[in-house]
Automatic annotation (TrEMBL):
This is NAD-dependent dehydratase. It comes from the Bacteria. Residues 11-299 form the NAD-dependent epimerase/dehydratase domain. It comes from Alicyclobacillus cellulosilyticus. CDD domains: SQD1_like_SDR_e. Belongs to the NAD(P)-dependent epimerase/dehydratase family. Transmembrane segments: none annotated.
Length: 390
């Protein structure tokens, strides 16, 4: 589809101040959609709680959207509020009447959810109640609004058979059915996504809601064409032991001379994707909505890697840049398989037209260079993992 042929939609981006939500909101706005951001700004408070900050300096949400307007003439209204407050969610729905809601607005760190009972309960209440409120607001205000929900590949765990896209055909005692793929999530956070999936599936069946569950892999990278336009549009990138994710952490560690923190053997294999593909996938899902009553599941990642493979690749690229980097095998703070079979299907987004940005040495080099530029903002004390699963 050419840019000038794109259907203009009203899209509500919940969690639009976060790592995936901010670049997505800008991309959708640039592509001509009418975008509104809803966020409670709680992610910025978790940084304060954990004594950390984004590697890159980030402007306030108000400064971000003002800069966007100044640079492009495009307006992105913002509404600050908590998705667990139903009156707030319904009022935003009544005001904006979205064609689609992209729901990024959850607590997304597995380690954060494993800190203690309080953080586990908070994560599940925040995520499950927020999603339920969105489902009820869709039912009350605009039943044909397409819910595009960020799920996670971690809902499936690492079974010893191929992971299918949401559903699996099972033959049992001479009968056959297509059933939701079995879930073996890795943490209380990943469990919250499973609970969400079940609630959404039920509402699709009961009320005829249309929904797409995007089981996203680990996102890496930082820059999109829009976020690099101006310092006030910079995206956040996490490197700490609670919110930082594997590949981004390794690049930042390489830049500041910290050993690469591989947990255990490092054979843990996951699906990964570039942040530029996250924004592309969201737009593809929005332009091709699920049918009324359909609970559609896409596996949103582009390549599989083991953690050790990624650490070795970062080590090689860093060496080419003249940086000597060691790989440390830390005792694994998590309970997970460190060597296992993994093969996950991911064809549905490609069928819709996804043109993936596969992992390149150039991207790793650029991430390492970005981290070198902001090395003064890196606090070595927050790099080690602190939350344990046991
Ligand atoms: P993030 O923490 O950077 O952003 C989430 C945003 O949601 C934050 O701005 C936060 O303030 C907001 N938020 C959280 N709870 C809220 C609430 N109750 N009300 C209003 N706003 C709330 O996370 P991210 O990395 O951008 O992830 C976005 C989504 O994508 C999450 O649902 C996450 O589970 C999913 N996801 C992320 C990754 C990844 O690697 N980052 C991978 C797979 C899936
Ligand atoms: N790991 C290391 N060293 C590190 C960090 C992580 O070895 O320094 C390992 C972990 O043990 C795990 C794997 O790398 O085996 C992935 O961990 P991660 O922290 O990069 O990602 P994860 O906890 O799975 O969570 C992230 C996002 C989450 C999203 C998920 C997608 O924070 O929101 O849902 O990726 S997925 O992994 O597909 O479930």
């Amino acid at each position: 589809m050419r840019t000038d042929e794109v259907k203009r939609m009203r899209i509500l981006v919940a969690g639009g101040d976060g790592f995936c939500g901010w670049p997505t909101a800008l991309h959708l706005s640039k592509r001509g959609h009418e975008v509104i951001i809803v966020d409670s700004l709680i992610r910025r408070k978790w940084d304060e709680e954990l004594g950390t900050q984004s590697l890159t300096p980030i402007a306030t949400l108000e400064e971000r959207v003002a800069a966007w307007k100044e640079l492009t003439g495009l307006e992105i209204p913002i509404r600050i509020g908590d998705l667990t407050n139903y009156e707030f969610v319904e009022s935003v729905f009544r005001e904006f009447e979205p064609d689609a809601i992209v729901h990024f607005g959850e607590q997304r760190s597995a380690p954060y959810s494993m800190i203690d009972r309080e953080h586990a309960v908070f994560t599940q209440v925040n995520n499950v109640v927020g999603t339920l409120n969105i489902l009820f607001a869709i039912k009350a205000v605009k039943l044909d609004c397409h819910l595009i929900k960020l799920g996670t590949m971690g809902e499936y765990g690492t079974p010893n058979i191929d992971v299918e896209e949401g559903y699996i055909r099972i033959r049992h005692k001479g009968r056959e059915d297509v059933l939701p793929y079995p879930k073996q999530p890795f943490s209380f956070y990943h469990l919250s996504k499973v609970h969400d999936s079940h609630n959404i599936m039920f509402c699709c069946k009961a009320w005829g809601i249309r929904a797409t569950d995007l089981n996203q892999g680990v996102v890496y990278g930082l820059w999109t064409p829009e976020t690099r336009m101006d310092e006030r549009l910079y995206n956040r990138i996490d490197y700490d032991g609670v919110f930082g994710t594997a590949l981004n952490r390794f690049c930042i560690q390489a830049a500041v001379g910290h050993d690469l923190t591989v947990y255990g053997k490092g054979g843990q294999t996951r699906g990964f994707l570039d942040i530029r593909d996250t924004v592309q996938c969201i737009e593809l899902a929005a332009l091709h909505p699920a049918e009324p009553g359909e609970f559609r599941v896409f596996n949103q990642f582009t390549e599989q890697f083991s953690v050790l493979e990624l650490a070795q690749r970062v080590q090689r690229v860093a060496a080419e840049m003249g940086l000597k980097v060691n790989i440390a095998h830390l005792p694994n703070p998590r309970v997970e398989k460190e060597q296992h079979y993994y093969n996950a299907v991911h064809t549905k987004l490609t069928d819709l037209g996804l043109k993936p940005h596969l992992l390149s040495d150039d991207l790793l080099r650029e991430l390492i260079e970005t981290a070198q530029r902001y090395r003064d903002r890196v606090d070595f004390k927050v790099i080690a993992p602190t939350a344990t699963w046991r």
